């Protein structure tokens, strides 16, 4: 048990170190970005008011262009997803139509039998989780088995 706990502790320590390294890298990247922004800001302060306005407009145009490209990319993904879903819908509608057509051809007793089979299948698919039922006198045995 002690070895298992030590192994778990070492795994957690390694994960923690990895997370810390990733966070340090992120902080470093953000510091570099902040320094770049500060230098750009200082440069804009040294410009004339007209140049500052023009620089601000260029920055805003760049930001809007990047945002526009991101939105176009997202739109393309959504359109592809829409086409895929429409194809799936057509396939499923065809299957439903085929199933309905086959149901009209079957005799009534066969359809009733199929419905009973479907209900039975639905009941078998249920999965119960979370509760354990036991007798009070079996509790020490249950605890001992859980521990071992």
From TrEMBL:
Residues 2-102 form a coiled coil. Keywords: Coiled coil. This is MYO5B protein.
